[in-house]
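Our collaborator T.R. sent over the components below with a one-line note: 'Predict the complex.' Nothing else. No constraints on interfaces, no templates requested, no preferences about which chain binds where. So this is a plain run: every listed entity goes in together, and whatever single assembly comes back becomes the starting point for the next discussion.
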Amino acid sequence: MKNKHLVSISDFSKEEYIKILDSAEDFEKQPVQDIATGKVVATLFFEPSTRTRLSFESAANRMGAKVIGFSDASSSSTSKGESLADTIKTVCCYADLIVMRHPLEGAARLAGEVSSVPIINAGDGANQHPTQCMLDLYSIRKTQNTLDNLHIALVGDLKYGRTVHSLVEAMCNFNATFHLISPESLKLPGAVKMHIKEKGLNYYQYTEIQEAIDKVDILYMTRVQRERFLDIQDYERVKNAYILEQSMLKNSKPNLKVLHPLPRVNEINTNVDNTRQAYYFQQAQNGVYVRQALIAAILGLK
Amino acid sequence: MNKKELVVSAIKNGTVIDHIPADKLFQVIKALKLNDCTEEILMGNNLSSYKLGKKGIIKCKDKFFEKNEINKIALITLHATLITIRDYEIVEKIKIEIPDAIEGMVKCFNPKCITNNESVMQKFAVIDKEDLKLQCHYCQKITKKETLTFL
Ligand SMILES: [Zn+2]
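Returned assembly:
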């Protein structure tokens, strides 16, 4: 994986994911490992995403790397009209690895084509956010002790949710069964279902959480956003159907864990936070270990 | 050589695009930017065709198309035939086919795609040739026949 770009989840093979997850486990046991001393990681955030940026910077810092970069486009030369390609070519002179987030789709792929140092995509518009997917996989494996043969429920906006699309694609490698819970108008797109069908896996579609909750090992919650509805009345009708309450978990499987890419708004009631099923804050913590593992692998340090 | 081919090859050197469905002729002209061409061009439309009912034909004197330009025609119609003429003789006759990949001739329909915001060559993988579907190499969105625009 040394010097490889990570732009899309399909850039890495199943075997490579597994290696990263194993290495992340090692970082969880020992988060401070001074193996990247002298290395410079650039975090170029052309649109702000404090959570993701801090997670990467924390990962780099714990390995002894130095971090340079910017946290929104107004503090970069993009605001002076510089092209993305020129910005990347310039930053290549200063850094050993570039982590970038950009509002335009395909920006990271373009950056990878002009960059002489590896690129990690930390989100390009609605397109890809592969490190989120890898930390989801890590959290699933960690809580279930396996990635194979699991029943996974995905709840909320399955049409536009990029984390959902990537997770479905990735879990198709592990013989998963999918329980897809969404409003009629926000069902999983055909292009994503294709991956499930190609592998001959099973999927079920529901409009209510309760229909699937007791059957699954993982309940992956996402937010249903008002902006996604053309008709505000449609939104009003469904908005409360996708909120998880503690009482809904009472007949769930003993190994069930609730995941969420965060930030949440109200789709998980805070009364779920202290249940043994809640795993979303730990999930965010896992992001740091996974990013440490990725940085180490791509810089060829491990 | 039969009479029909003689009609087609009535230019000394150049290219004949035959069997264009009549309703696609003007799209082909536009896609090939023939309005900017300074060489002699002969065109006909609504000519009777055994295969198509009505067809269009374009004869371009002293013009030989590059592969990329031929590919453009393929995205409009698969019926057309491209005939290369040298010294009044047909030297090559090819049936137009959609390639597996397309570069720099079609616009990605996604306004949030990097290719519509920075100067970068568009690249697509043709994922469906029957019901034309082009997947953008950058944003991965799929441009279909209804959303297709030529550059
Ligand atoms: Zn695109």
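Summary for T.R.: The interface with chain A takes residues 110, 112-115, 117-120, 136-142 of chain B (CB under 8 Å).
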